[in-house]
Amino acid sequence: MPRWLAHLVVVAVFAAVVAAAFARVHYAWNWAGVWEYRQKFVQGWLTTVALSLAALVASIVIGGLTALALASRRPLVEAVGRVYVELIRGTPLLVQLLIGFYVIAGAIGLENRFAVGVLVLALFSGAYMAEIFRGGLAAIPQAQRDSARAIGLSPWQTLRLVVLPQALRLVLPPVAGQLVSLIKDSSLLSVIAISEFTLNAQEVNAFTYSTLESYLPLAAGYLLLTLPLSALAHWLESRVRFEAS
Amino acid sequence: MPFIIRLAALCSIWAAAVSAAAPPLRVGMELSYPPFEMTDPQGRPTGVSVRLAEALGRHLGREVVIENISFDGLIPALKTSRIDCIISSLTATPERARAIAFSEPYMKIGLALLVGTASPVRSAADLDAPGRVVAVKKGTTGHTFATTTLHNAKILVLDKESAAVMEVAQGKADAFIYDALSVFRNQRRHPETTHAVLQPFREETWAIGLRPGDDGLRGQVNGFLEAFRAAGGFAQLGDEFLPEEKRAFKEQGLPFSF
Amino acid sequence: MRLEVHDLVQRFDGTTVLDRLALTTGEIQALVLVGPSGGGKSTLLRILAGLDVPVAGSVAFDGQPLPRDETALRAYRRTVGTVFQAYNLFPHLSALDNLLLPLVHVHGLSPAAARDRVREPLERFQLAAHAHKRPAELSGGQKQRIAILRALVVQPRRLFLDEPTSALDPEMTAEVLEMIGELKAQGTQFVLVTHEMGFARRVADELAFVGDGRVLAHGAAAEILDRCSIPRVRDFFGRILA
C-alpha cells in the first residue's frame, strides 16, 4: 500500500470514530452562530502567524548565539549562556510571560504587548534551540576538527565549512519539532491579552456558547500551520541527507 | 438474627436507597471571585455562592459537590451535563437565556468601573473614545458590553480578574468593567493607583443557571430561593461576607441587594 | 628533508608522553616511525605536523625550526599534508569537493583551477570514477586514498601519515600501501607511522623505534628490524613479526 494512501486511511478511520462519538452525544450543533464571528477567527489566526514567525526567526538567532556562547572557552561567556538556558528551561512559559510583561517590561519602559510577547516567546524557544544546536555541534567528532586544522582551515572556516553544514543536518528534525511547539505555545500569549488565535476562539465560545463549533476550527487552524512546517522539515531532511541511501 | 445485625442491614439498605434516589447535586462555579466564590486558607470552597449551594443542598436533601470550573467554561459544562447547575454570580442575560435556563434572580447588581488614577475616564460615557484601553474578564457581561458597545476603544480580554486589575493599576488600561462589589473591593486593595466609579451604568441580575428542560430542578430551586430569602438567609450572607461593602454602599446611596 | 629534534617533551593531563626525545636524520626522503601503542610515535608525528605544540624542546626541518604560536603554525600546516587513521574526509561533501576545499579556501585557487589540478592525480590513482561519491559510499581504502590525494594536491613540502592503514582490512591496506609506494617512487617526502613492518622495510630511508617517550633505536630499516641489540626493540619485533 503506498504511504500516502495508508496515511489517508488512518485519518479517515480516526475521523469516523470521532464523528460517531459526536453523534452519540446528541450535541446541538450551532455553526451559524460561529460563522457570524468568522472575522475573529481569521484575525486571530493571522496574529498567531505573525507572532509565530517573528518569534521563530528570533529564537533561531538567539539559540545559535547561545549555543556558541555555551561552547566558548571564556568562563564568563559560557556562564551567561548556561544561566540563561537553565533559568528559561526550568520555569514555565506562563510565569515568564507574566513576570516579563507585568514586571520587567514595565520597568524598562517596553509598552508594546505584541513586542513583549514575541520577545518572551523567542527567549523561551531560544533556550531549547540552544540546547539542540549545542547537541548538534557536540555530535561532530573532534576528529573532524582535527582534519580541518590539518588542512590549514582557520577556526572560523572550520565552523563555516565543516562543522555547521554537518550540524545543520543533525539539528533539522529537533528544530522542526521545536518550531511546531512554538506555534502551539503562542496560544499562551493570551494571558497578556494578545488577541491571538486561541483567545479569539475562546471569545467566540463565550459569546455563542458553541464550544465544539469554536474549538474544532481552532484545531484545524493550528494544523494548517504545523502540518506544512512538518512537511517542509521532512523534505529538507531528505535533501540534505548524506548517509548512503 | 441478632437485633444489631438486622438494624445494620436496614441502615445500609436505607442509605443505599437514599443515595440511589438522590444523587449529589453538582454545582459549578469559578472559585476566584471573592467573597462569592473563593477558597479558604485550607483550600476548601467558601463564600456566598458556596453557602447558597450548601443551603440548596440541604433543602433538596442532596449532597453538594462543588466543581471549580473557569467562568467561560461553566455554560458548556452545564450543557454537557458535567454539572447540574451554575451558582457562580452568573448574570442572567437574554443571550445566555438562549443557551440555558435561569432560576428566578436572587441578586441585583450593576456593572461599574475600576479606573486608573492617571486615566481621564470619569464615567462609562468616557470609555468609547479612541486611545482608551478597556480591560474585561473573558466571558463576563463586561466583556459582552465592551465588545458590543465600545467600538473606538481597545479592548483587552484577560483570563483572570487579578490580571485585569493589574492592567489598570499599572496604567496599562484605563478601566476594568466588572460588578460594583468587586470593583469596590479591588479599589480598596489598590488605593494609590485606582479609583472606583461605583454608580452602576448597567443593572444586571444574578440567577442560578440550569439546563433547559430541567424543569423539575428549576421549580425546586425557585422554591428554595423564595424560602431562603424569607428566612433572612441573604441578609445573613451579606453580614457574613460583605459587611464593609454593605456599609459603604449604603453610605454612598448605592443599591445593595443583600 | 633533514629532521632535527632535540629534548622534545610533551605532556597530557599530567602524564609525560614524550620524555626529552631526540632524533636527527640525514638527508632522506622517507622516515618511518614504529613502536608500541602509547609509546609516543603518534604524539611525535602530530608535533612534526604542526598540530600540537610541545611543552619543551625543538623541532627543525632542513634547518627551519617549527614555530610555537598558533597563527604561524597554521601557516606551517598549509605547507604540509597530514593523513590520519580515519575520519579524514568531511562526510557532507563529495570526494571531489573534499579535494577542492583546501585548494579553494586555504590556497586561494579558483574553483576552475582547483578542478584542473585534481583531474590528473584522480586519474593516475584510479579514483576519478569515485570522485562524485560521498565518503559514506566509498570503501575504507578509497577514503584513505582520497585523503592522501587531498593532502597531496596542495603540493606540500612533505606528508605526515599516522597509521593510514591500521583501520583497514588486508586488501584495502594493500591498495593504500601501493599508493604510498608510488609516492616514494615519485620523490614525495614523508614521515610515516605504521605497523606494517614489511612495507616499512621496503620504503623507509631511515627507521626510528619510538617507545616510552624516546627514540630507542634509529637507523637503516634492515638494521633495526633484523639486527637490533636493544632487548626492548628486539622483543617488540619478535612479537609482531612472529
Task: Give a nutshell description of this structure.
Chain B is of the alpha/beta class and 258 residues long. Chain B contains ten helices and eleven strands.
How would you explain this protein's 3D organization?
The complex is a heterotrimer of chains A (245), B (258) and C (242). Chain A is an all-alpha fold and 245 residues long. Chain A has one domain (38-240): MetI-like (MetI-like fold). Chain A contains ten helices and no strands. The radius of gyration of chain A is 22 Å and the shape is flat. The mean pLDDT of chain A is 89. By secondary structure, chain B is α/β, with parallel strands linked by helices. Chain B folds into two domains: 22-108 and 205-251, Periplasmic binding protein-like II (D-Maltodextrin-Binding Protein, domain 2); 110-203, D-Maltodextrin-Binding Protein, domain 2 (3-Layer(aba) Sandwich). Chain B is built from ten helices and eleven strands. In chain B, strands 1, 4, 5, 6, 7, 8, 9, 10 and 11 form a nine-stranded mixed beta sheet that branches. In chain B, strands 2-3 form a two-stranded antiparallel sheet. The longest helix of chain B has 19 residues, at 3-21. Chain B is elongated and about 85 Å long. Chain C is of the alpha/beta class and 242 residues long. Chain C folds into two domains: 3-80 and 157-241, Rossmann fold (3-Layer(aba) Sandwich); 90-155, no CATH class. Helices cover 40% and strands 24% of the residues of chain C. In chain C, the strands form two sheets. A six-stranded mixed beta sheet of chain C has the order 6-7-8-3-9-10, sandwiched between helices. In chain C, strands 2-1-4-5 form a four-stranded antiparallel beta sheet, with helices on one face. The A-C interface holds A 141, 143-144, 146-154, 157, 161-162, 165-166, 169, 240, 242-244 and C 49, 51, 74-75, 77-78, 81-82, 84, 86-92, 101-102, 105-106, 134, 136-137, 150-151, 154.
